[in-house]
Amino acid sequence: MALKDSGTDTVFGRNDVFDLDSYLKEKQNLVNIELGRFLDEVTCSPPTLIQAMRYCIEAGGKRLRPVLCMAACELVGGRQTDALYAACALELIHTYSLVHDDLPAMDNDDLRRGKPTCHKAFGEANAILAGDALLTAAFEVLGSRPSERVPPSVAVRIISVIAKAAGASGMVQGQQRDLFFEGKTVTWEELAALHRLKTGALMEASVSVGAMLGGGTDEQVAAVNTYGSYIGLAFQIADDLLDADGDPELLGKPVGSDQALAKATALSTLGVEGARRQAADLLDKALSVLTVFGKRGEPLAALARFVVERTH
Amino acid sequence: MALKDSGTDTVFGRNDVFDLDSYLKEKQNLVNIELGRFLDEVTCSPPTLIQAMRYCIEAGGKRLRPVLCMAACELVGGRQTDALYAACALELIHTYSLVHDDLPAMDNDDLRRGKPTCHKAFGEANAILAGDALLTAAFEVLGSRPSERVPPSVAVRIISVIAKAAGASGMVQGQQRDLFFEGKTVTWEELAALHRLKTGALMEASVSVGAMLGGGTDEQVAAVNTYGSYIGLAFQIADDLLDADGDPELLGKPVGSDQALAKATALSTLGVEGARRQAADLLDKALSVLTVFGKRGEPLAALARFVVERTH
Asked: What is residue B148's three-state secondary structure?
């Protein structure tokens, strides 16, 4: 049921040769190496804590937020290595949020990316602590690893942007609202507002911060932020479509978990066709924001399509 | 059993008139106002998340880390208002750590400061999220509220210092080790190493960061860091003495909880007299570090005494 064709796509035509696979692999590789380097420096006795952190980071994942961050940096003429440290911090935050969301008191999920969730593998206390440590590690990275080319004033500013997006005004509030909505009847508008917090805020921060680190103007930062808000919501709709009938093998988790938790989804509020239309519309909007960047917008356009059309 | 007299105390004589009560009240007041200002800006719908955060912050507490931070700033000639934002961040981190430590999967405590713990008042999921949000809020404050007199390079540096102290290399590792040690036979040396992580690291960061924000030299920062390491451990010994036979009314929680959890304490490893001697020794060492600061060291000396001799 995931979108196979996102509809009108005139600006960044499919005939353009853009090799997203190689693009993703290169950036994912950079991020994985840098995350590994950071984790290698942490010694814990007993080693359980760092093992749990490593387990969650190494479980894989698309590294979507880091790639978006580095892509936005390059979009405005920056070097991806200047955004790499922030990209890693965003992945650390995203990973912590998954660990805590999976906890028995929250979504109570047993599987994540085909493997036992952190609390299943390491116990609940260690999973809470691993999440705490991953979140804190993000800010350690942000405080200690800016590239020399990043002005300290920008390094401070992006910390504020990321923390605001991740905390009570953003992602954490989204998760709280998600739990609150369980079993309740909600409209699509309410659900969209929830996803803007839970998923959108950190995606917006990813591209905004990337553009800031690349030396983008305020207008450029605002433009990518808008792009981020569209793809953040589109991402969640795609997720809902996948949860409804994606391939559990590809997803690495059982499908239908939203239904089991009596969670409202894009499907339950909009219907399948409505959800597909909504995603296609958001994709169009995201692409049209990028037109001002011309050819340079291609990677972010391809990423937007990937977000909506992915199968896992 | 808490120490009533800390023994040799020649440098900062008790005859000096230093009104610690007023000193504490003034600084606690500044911190409470600033924390309130920050929390007032956060709007959550439903309001549960911000209510839970506020509940934990407003539960009181000595604001010891913030006071230490501002005191260290003034010690090296800085203005306390330059350290106020970092002081608030430290309290946010300390508060989050209490919320998560109290969780059923961790220490499973029902009372904190005479009131139901966060998960007892708001449920487990909301307590996990409130802790996450408080931790994230600390970095939002650090990223968005430095005084204009703080150079951005220093603002970035203190974020790295605080995050390192709070995370897998510091406090979180200490908590993990604490859980790991439950029911095990440990030596005083092992226990002291644990407390250096769990309590000491953030205390050290509090004074170090205060001195950095006050424009202290590397030697001054190193000196207060050493002071912080002594009082961090002394604080924990005093805590153990209080847990063994403090006044539950004053403590706001039942005594004897360490024994119930089969946790090793300063008492169980050193005996009462040994623990008292150890605390007195650490106090002496902390005071002697301050001698190079002359009269200016008085507030931190009084705070060191307070840490060891407090009754709650």
From this structure: coil
C-alpha A119/C-alpha A76 separation (Å) is 41
Torsion of CA A49, A54, A56, A57, to 10 degrees: 140
What pLDDT is recorded for position A133?
98
CA angle B141, B147, B148 (to 5 degrees): 130
Summarised one tens digit per residue, pLDDT across range B96-121 is 999 999 999 999 999 998 899 999 99
Q: Where are the alpha helices (DSSP H) in chain B?
A: 20-40, 48-57, 64-75, 80-101, 118-122, 124-144, 152-166, 171-181, 188-195, 201-213, 218-245, 248-251, 257-260, 266-290, 298-309
Which positions 9-48 of B are in contact with A (Cβ < 8 Å)? Answer: 42-46, 48
Q: Predicted ipTM?
A: 0.93
Contact B146 A156 (CB under 8 A): yes
CA distance B34 to B43: 17
Residues in chain A with CB shorter than 8 Å from the CB of B168 are 42, 44, 49-50, 53, 133, 136-137
Domains and CATH numbers, chain A: 20-309 (1.10.600.10)
Q: Percentages helix, strand, coil for chain A, rounded to the nearest 5? A: 70, 0, 25
Residue A256: both structure tokens together = 């239908």
- Tokens 């089969």 locate to B262
Task: For residue A151, say if its preceding peptide bond is cis, omega within 30 degrees of 0.
Answer: no
Q: Is the pLDDT of residue A3 over 50?
A: no
| The pLDDT value given to residue A147 | 84
B165 touches chain A (CB under 8 A): no
Q: Would you state the torsion angle of the CA atoms of residues A232, A234, A239, A240, taken in this order, to the nearest 10 degrees?
A: 120
Provide the whole-model pTM.
0.93
